[in-house]
Amino acid sequence: MDSLDQWSVYILLCSDQSLYTGITNDVERRFHQHKTQQGAKYFRGRQPEELVYLETGHDRSSASKRESSIKKLPRTKKLQLLQSDINQASKSMDSLKIFDQDCRRCERLDDFLCAVKHKYPGYHARPVAPFGDKNAQLLIVGLAPGMHGANASGRPFTGDFAGLLLYQTLYDFGFSNKPTSDSRDDGLTLINCRITNAVKCLPPENKPTTTEINQCNKFLANELANLPANSVILALGTIAHQSVIKAYGLKLSSAAFGHNKLHVLPAGHILIDSYHTSRYNIQTKRLTGDMFADVFRTIEYQFADKNTAVRN
Hints:
Blueprint lengths: L6 E8 L4 E6 L2 H9 L12 E11 L1 H12 L3 H8 L6 H4 L14 H13 L11 E2 L5 E5 L7 H4 L8 H11 L20 E5 L12 H16 L6 E5 L1 H10 L14 E3 L5 E5 L4 H5 L5 H17 L7
Parallel strand pairs: 5-6, 5-7, 7-9
Antiparallel strand pairs: 1-2, 1-3, 4-6, 8-9
Helix pairs in contact: 7-11, 8-9
């Protein structure tokens, strides 16, 4: 059976504790659509929180009939259904993760990390998790971990040159309690801000392939889908910018990269671009401290314009 003919019936637990029943041939895509208010009208006044029931093996017709029968059930019966043996939701939850510490999907990256770990036993040398406030309204998206930075420390932009200007600027604008990020146990706390990467693993020569970028994009898509309303995404560099656009299911041609350029995204989110804080960009003055500060003034303006105060 073609994948487009493989339909599933699902139930989502919503932010108001209601249970929403629907059908889809792509659970991950449909969950993201509901999260970003591009799906059912039901989610204009509430948010989907969790996939709690999944029943596979249907075609479009049988899925629709099953959906109709479940919708007629009282809530008590639906809750019993969640506990039944036919519920496959737990098997599907991996597709909704924003991060997987044990991910080994990209063979080239996995082999490279194993070699790095052998050479540098004290390095993290595994996928690097997002860092910061889980409910942040500012999400900063970088390219990938650096060899002797995040790949070593296990925290984005920590231990390498690219983090110097980033963390100093976060501190200057009230998004951090410290101006530097030295290690995972240094007491640094981000305020209304989280940092992630388009690619979670160190790539050889800091150059991920298109396939590797796309493989990691579903994690970014899920992270973006969980952002609060009125959030701002800061993309550091072209690849980060393009990864965000892909994660929203938009065409790359719909939003060209430009330093301190603003793009309106679905669900009222805003994307702002900046040149990456890399050593090369700083030393060649393609990006200066003043230029980067201007980007954060743009971010401040967006929060103020949406009547969204940065949390202190």
